[in-house]
Every structure is written in C-alpha cells, then in structure tokens.
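Example with several molecule types.
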Amino acid sequence: MHEMGVVLNIVRTAQEAAKANHVAKIGRLTLQVGELTGVIPKYVHACWPAAIEHTILEGANLVIEEIEGIATCKDCGCDYSVLENMNADQPVCPTCGSKQWKVKTGREVMIKDIGVIDD
Amino acid sequence: MDKIRVIDIKRSIFDNNDKDAEKLREQLKQEKTFLLNLMSSPGSGKTTTLMRTIEMLKEEIKIGVMEADIDSSVDAEKIATTGVKSIQLHTGGMCHLDADMTRQGLTEFGTQDMDLVVLENVGNLVCPAEFDTGAVKNAMILSVPEGDDKPLKYPLMFSICDAVLINKIDVMSVFDFDLEAAKERIKALNPKAEIFPVSARTGEGFEAWADWLRKNVTAWNE
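Resulting structure tokens for the full complex:
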C-alpha cells in the first residue's frame, strides 16, 4: 500500500522536527498533499492510527490540505488547473491550446505545521 | 483547556529519502558500481528484456540483478541461466522501494565488485516514481499492448526516466500502436528521455539500448 510508506515518512519527518524544536508531544499535524501525487488523502487517514502508535504522534489529529495541480504553459506562460483542463487524458492550455506544460504546484507532500501542547 | 502552539515545519516528507538517495549515489560512485532502477508494469516483458541485455553485456561488464517485488515478475531461475548473480528482496507488502531499503539490499547482495546492478523495482508505474531509490539512472519499459497513450496516464513516471524502452515493437500493427505519438507524448513530459523502440523477442533495437547502457556504466565507473 502506497500511503503506508508515505505515512511512515511523515512520522519520521515529524519526529525529527519535534526533536529540533524540543517538543515532547504532538497534538496535531497539518499535511499538504498535491492533487497530482499518487497519495490519496482518504487512505492516508486510514493508515494514520496504526502508523502513529507508540510514536511522538500517538493520538495526534491529522489535518490534510489539498494543493491544486497547477501547470504553467510553456508557450504562452499562463497558469491553469491541470485537472480542469484535461482533454483526452492530456492537459491543454485554455488560453492558447498548447499541450506543452510544466508542473507549477500539485506534486508536494509536505508537513506544513505541527500543533504542540505545552505543559 | 490546553493551549495548542503551532510550529511551522514546511518540510517535504520526501526530504529524508532524497538525502538517503544522494548518500547512496555517493557511495556507489566510490565503489564504482552503476545502479540502474528498472521499472515497468507487470507483463511488459521485463524478464526477456533483462536477459537479452545481460547476454549482450555480460562479457564486458560484471552484472548483478536485484529483484524487488511483492510477487516476483522476473523469474530468478531464468536469470540464473545467464550466469549472473541475483538476489530477491522482500518489500513486506510495500509497493515501492526507498533509498534505505535499496542500500540494505545492496549491502546484503555484496555489490562492491559489480560494475552494473539492475534493480528491478516493484511492478507498477505510480509508487516507484515518487521515491528516489538512489539509482544512477532510471529506466522503464512500456510495452506495445499497453497502448501509446500510457505516458498520459502516468506522467510522473515518464518525467523521471532517463531511458524509456518501448518493447514488443514486433506486434505494433496488431495493437494499432502509434510509435510517433508515443514518442511525442514522452518527449512532452520529459524532453531529455532517451527512447529505445525494441523487441526483446527478436532482438530488434537492442544495439542502441545496450550502447546507451554501456556508455553510462563506463562514464560512471571511470
């Protein structure tokens, strides 16, 4: 399962961040997931409880923010939504019709922030 | 009520793996071992392609094969008939290999004296694309029956590959496969990709692919 590998990396990254910030317990974690990744938020939520057991994240709430997939047209330079401009499985620039594009946003899987409870 | 303090992190969860991958590449450079990460869908002809590639290069390059699969698609016994060493890695149900798992596999395998190690990644086109294994180059096999529109469906995979083999070109007419359209779609995603139309069955196109691999292995191991 793809999301399990991703979640284990979240735990590892969060543990390092907690250590660097001298935090003993994390109560909440905000994850940003790009819609052009293979990571499905629903399945991240599904394997979250098992992955955080006996870690610094045990019992922590997971908040997922989706990041829209935005492409930049290589011909006219405008930015557009990849998923809203699909034509026959291919993104097409709504301004000039070009099929040449590069990803601007939407491939991230990032820990945005953590919420800690101070004693 | 407890007060929650928010700490900004803004860190990609792939950071750790990317660092592990860089470290592994440095190690491979020192050991003069070229690691090729080979990816494909199940049924793309990976075993036959790999065997033909090994037969062409084994006299000049010391090769090892590291298979990683949930269910192995490369037949270990078949690979053994070519006389090269192989090892089977178990991913424990995980759909991809990360850099740390790759490093552990290489250590177990004992690859220091090998010139080329082919890592046969788990057979799918989604997950392996998101995790850098630490390989020197990424290659993938797209087979004709999968269709010329495959690059559109798996854009990330095609955008990270240095070499794309289009296999089973001997049956192109049967499947109505448009080679030029496939090439154009791959180039749109990844202008730098080298594309090799081949037939692992007849051997067509293998000279160019073997040359590319030989050239890259030699340059890395200098």
